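Review form for a predicted model. The reviewer records the input and the model, then writes brief findings.
Reviewer: anonymous (R2)
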Amino acid sequence: MGGCAVGPDFREPDAPQVESYTPTPVAGETASAPGPGGAAQRLVAGEEVPAQWWILFRSPALDQLIRQALADSPTLASAQATLRVAEENLRAARGALFSPQFDAKGSAGRQRFSPAAIGMPQIPPVEFNLYNASVSIGYYFDLFGSARREFEALQSEADYQQFQLQAAYVTLTANVVTTAIREAALRAQLEATQEILAAEEKQLAIVERQVALGGAARSDVLTQRSQVAQTRAGLPAIEKDLARTRHLFSVFVGKLPGEAQMPEFTLAALELPQELPVSLPSALVRDRPDIRAAEELLHRASAKVGVATANLYPQLTLTGSYGSLTNVSGDWFTAGTSVWSFGVGLAQPLFRGGQLTAQRRAAIAAYDQAAAQYREVVLRAFQNVADTLRALELDAQTLQAQSEAATAAREALDLTQKQYELGAATYLALLTAQRQFQQAKIGLVQAQAARFADSAALFQALGGGWWHEPIRSHGVSDQDKP
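Model under review:
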């Protein structure tokens, strides 16, 4: 009967036949610059992402925080519970679709029968007890594969939830890393702003002394005070973002902000990975959990087409029962009390007003929709990797330029301050040098953080290495896997 099963038989989509993620080749090694996040990075083509890629940042505190998040994250727990629901529904469907259905029935009742109902009013009514016990069986012969396709759709749903769990794992680990990098960047930005503020306050004291001695105009003091006030006003905004970032950590690890003891991260405590694996483009469709999840949705849609097609053909069922019917409780299964039935049912849809054919066309349209969505997910995944690779290349160049700009701005500020103290430079020139140094210092911190963040983004874009250590729902072993 298996040869009668209708199609379609699902086939995994082919991987894109491309050799590069970007239209033009990406440099094998990035530029370098002094300071945190300035090391040159080498892109290793064809190498897989390691399972615990975050340890490449050489931060024990970050590693410990991620382990805590993986153990206690409510997002991950929710994804695991959703997977368990799909797995148990699959097990229930296996029993309902492929196993004979046995039911035991029993009943006891007292009845009153009136012979007048059959035209004999002269006979008085009769009251009696009636006891029944039976076992029934039902079995559906899956001639054209409707049950098998339905089970295939449920299997795809369970696999989809499995890949959703892996995607949640990859997203969680990447979010923890990028949040730690953001905190480190905010701390560096806060420290730089405080250093700039201290220098400006020192300069304000010098200008005030010069005014007192008649060597500077009152307007210079007012301008410097305004500059100090503007710099000081920027501190609360940075501190607010820093507080929000640390509160976000508590969500990742499943704790309230008031009870979570989170480590502090600085750019100096993080090490930029000097080798970045870049897996082959042909492997990306198997490594990205979002692509695998979209593939399972396509698989499910294919199976639904098979269900709708099989519903156009005959359905065969087998039913039977055996039991005992008596009016004396002690006469169960004695001679003369047995009852039984056996039957075979065949149902062939003849006219449904076009319902079944319309349902099949709808299933085919749903398959086409799933195919288009799968293609879009693949395109966006490749775009994601291409964007990140270009970002890494340009981040290195930006950091190199920002480092040179910060050094030059520092030297220009020192020179202008000395010239101003000697009367060889105007206060306007000094103010301009201060602002340029402030912008260069903050730009340098942002460029350093961008290299760390985009390095983490590359690991996420390439799938996060989940296939090395796949996680499953709690309490489900490989032997119980549907």
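Findings: Helices lie at 60-72, 74-98, 146-212, 218-252, 281-287, 289-310, 355-421, 427-461.
Further findings: Residues 475-482 have pLDDT under 50 and may be disordered.
Recommendation: see findings above.
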